[in-house]
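Researcher: Here's my situation. A collaborator sent me these components and asked whether they could plausibly form a single complex. I don't have experimental data yet, so a predicted model of the whole assembly would be a useful starting point for our discussion.
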Amino acid sequence: MASHAIEVKNLYKIFGPNGGAYVDAVKKGMGKAELNEQHGHVLGLQDINISMPAGAVTVVMGLSGSGKSTLIRHINRLIDPTAGEVLYDGVDVCKMNENALREFRRHKTAMVFQKFALLPHRTVLDNTVYGLEIQGVERKDSEKRARGWIERVGLKGFENHFPNQLSGGMQQRVGLARALTNDADILLMDEAYSALDPLIRVDMQTVLLDLQKELKKTVVFITHDLDEALRLGDKIAILRDGRVVQQGTGQEIVLSPADDYITAFVKEVNRGRVINVETIMRPLSGNAEGVPLVTGTVLESAARTMTAARVATAHVVDENGRPIGALDLSAIISAMVTPVSHDDRKAA
Amino acid sequence: MASICSVLPELLCKFPAIDEGMIRLARKTIDDGFKGFVRSYGDAIDTVVQPLQWFLNYLEGLFVGSPWIVILVLMVAVVYFGSRNINITIGTALSMIAIGLVGLWNDTMITLAMVTVCTLISILIGIPIGILMARSERVQAIVNPILDVMQTMPSFVYLIPVVMIFGIGKVPGLIAVVIYAVPPMIRLTNLGIRLVDKEVLEAADAFGSSTWQKLKNVQMPLALPTIMAGINQTIMMSLAMVVVASMIGVGGLGKNVLQAIANQFFTVGFLNGFALVGIAIIFDRTSQAFGKRLQKHSEVIHG
């Protein structure tokens, strides 16, 4: 199945009995606090424009209250927008009627929830077939597909357990299996790993990345954790107070944070695991020296390769092995430490 | 008081009740109207509820007519497979034997048939109304005060119209019992559905469940413990009400109690009373154990 991109255009969400009346005021610059004080409405999202590329992971990052969970619920319209469009394959999800929306949810989207939201009275297997059961797929067929995914997420042997008998990490694997069994193009993950402890979280991230390599779904992943965002996201959008403050690749966000808010985040990031060699390489002058490093190698592993080979210089090669740039150990180290300017900005 | 009244105008001192003649007239009009209604539609209503009469008679005949040992074995089996608890099962057998020994077997069977039918009807009426209430704030706003009236109105009061329409017999008794016993069924179904985890409902929505699929797969199963509590309450209230219903011709243990009150038969009264307590406890423990067993999946909680 070919994946399609999702385009979010000029999306506004104002919570309250009469949200539509205040869209213009918000467009003219009324802020969240003002709207709440004067009109008793809560500004959820304002002027969101994000294009989520097909077959890639788009991470929406923000702290609690930033509107990220509200945003993801607009994609399958669990929340109705006040104004704006969500386009999938050229169709505006926000304009679908009830039937079309139900079909869209059944066949095009699957969702994983922060608190798992499994059916407590159903076994792992019965939870996993839920999406197909709703679609009316025959039990024999759905069970076969479900068993396949249960095995893929590493829960073989637990098919007949109830969710309450499983740990949080295992429950979320069930949530993931349930979503994948649907075989939908869009995978929505609402803080899917936030409730898991750190080691299991990294484990589950690996599961997702491995699956994504072959599935190439259009994944929308919500998180409040920048490390998670950088690890998973082909594209990252950062939300604050219902507004997109910056969007781009992980590299772009770490290397040129748009404002103090993002700078404060980025400061704590392990840059060695985010920045790629081609980002800091200088143009090739003369012969390629030292060890070759393929594009996409992060600085940390580049440094490891170079120290293991006991050389201070290296050159970057593209996928075909053609040299395209050079760098040395000191450049790597200076890129890996947090720039002084970030500390200054934080202090100011 | 008189001193205050000497200062106040009379209107504020003595409540200005509506003229007695007027009240008498209103009373007569309403009574006559209702009697007229009964006269013209009584037969039609009787025909409509006739199946209830048949069902009740059939079940009563079955319970009373079967050899006691068959009923006892059946009851013990139902209790055992419902509760899977050996103590409750033994308790059931012992109390039923005790009831038989003091000569109340047949009366107990009549009461049992009555309570069974009342409970079934209460469930059939209560669950759909409860579901409607949970789905709509407006229905809830309308039904709640009606339930309040049903539960607080002294049962003797609504026996009056019931008897006027249906006369004396089992069906009016059954209707009186259901009016009394159905409110907890409705309320707890409503509550159970409203308490279903919002996140799970959202997940069901996200996968594209239709309203019916949500009800069938999520709301009803998750509300089941609360609904079971409702059924339990309904059984208990039916048992309490069969005594009152004996005033309008329901037989069984209730009738004996009524006679004992009228004649001051201390021992008979208590024997019948204890027989009622016995069945009440059997029903209660069995239905609770059954409800708990349905919730087995929630027992093993993993951190």
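Model: Some features of this prediction you could bring to your collaborator: The first helix of chain B runs from residue 2 to 7. The radius of gyration of chain B is 24 Å.
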